[in-house]
Amino acid sequence: MSHRGQETILQRTSPARRTAGTDWAGCGSTVTLVHTRYPSAARVHPRESSPMGRINITAIRRRQIIDATISVMARKGWNDTSIDEITREAGVSRGLVSYHFRDKSELLSGVLARCQEAFDEAVGNGVAQGHDVLERLRIIIRLAVDRVKSDPVNYEVFLHFSASARSDPELGEQIRKLWAGYRAATASAIRYGQLKGLIRTDIDPDAAAAMEISTLIGLALQWLLDPDAYPLEEAARETEEMFMSYITAGVEGASPAAGTPASAPAAPSIA
Question: Model's pTM, two decimal places?
């Protein structure tokens, strides 16, 4: 492809977005949160440029193809997603897809990584709004639910592959690592709250984190299947209150402060 052709594709894309490493638990547990989408020539992610400032066309093409795959999957599902549909969505040739991804498995790995980046960005946005660990935990719950409505594609993709993980060892390993990362981040915040005397110490942080995440995923799955079944926001508020009351029960001066002004900005969609 000519340099002119490369410029044309770059000009059609929108700016990259990213968040820096964030100490979200407040105790030195830093997670690097990176999210990019269709970067333009004027503003690219550091990994997309060389030390000399040159644009990394390979990284841009890979992301372009991955984003197109996610869009097609939202309409067709993974099993019915074809290379031809991906190429049309991405505006690239079939050969270019094969060049950047050896097989469907490698493309799948890229799709899952993108879904994780989207969730990480939402977590990073929420952490920046919280003044203490309890407020941060509340915001994370709200953001997780907000993204079900603002960015359902990523939830659908992630839930689809989670359900398929047991029958695919390679896929299963990647999915398990993603879930483990989410649990570890939440458990880290709970442990920090215990150290600060804000969260009861007779609960297991890992078990509490798993309970919170499982409840949120259950809400998301039910709502995606039947959006008219129940009011998602109200169910999310009830979940938030139950979880915060559970982890702070009996802790003096650790009121979860329902209704605190911790409304973080809605996380941007990557679809």
Answer: 0.65
